[in-house]
Design brief:
This protein has 7 helices and no strands. By secondary structure, it is mainly α.
Length: about 150
Amino acid sequence: MSERPLTSLERLRETVALRVQATSLRAVARQVGMSPSGLEKFLSGGTPYSRSRQKLQDWWDREGSRPRSELSPEGIEVAVGALVRDLPAEHRAEAVQRLVRALRDVYDEQGAEFPTWLNSLAGTWIAGEHDPGIEEDDPRGEAHDD
């Protein structure tokens, strides 16, 4: 066993769960080097075998401790697209625009700086839009400068 301190199982479980939510169980299992069913058992509270525990620790050292802000704008756009995929195709673009506006409003209300991924989404989905019936300003009549 290496000399580095081990990350607690709960911290590992929390980080793995967040990464699974952001991507997929299969993608994270592949990154860790475990089977999806083994990773699912771990997420459900199971104690991993020592070899699996070491794989989880190695993954943590490589990937798991990265800040969440390192999620790519492309990955976030895919996630937002997944949220509206059950809507009729002709309404999806407007739904994404509304979600991006809502996210910007939440960050504004909290006085938080827009993260890079949100600026990217706004640039793609809101900036310069000229769809009929969609105002350049938000519904409150306030313009947003990006």
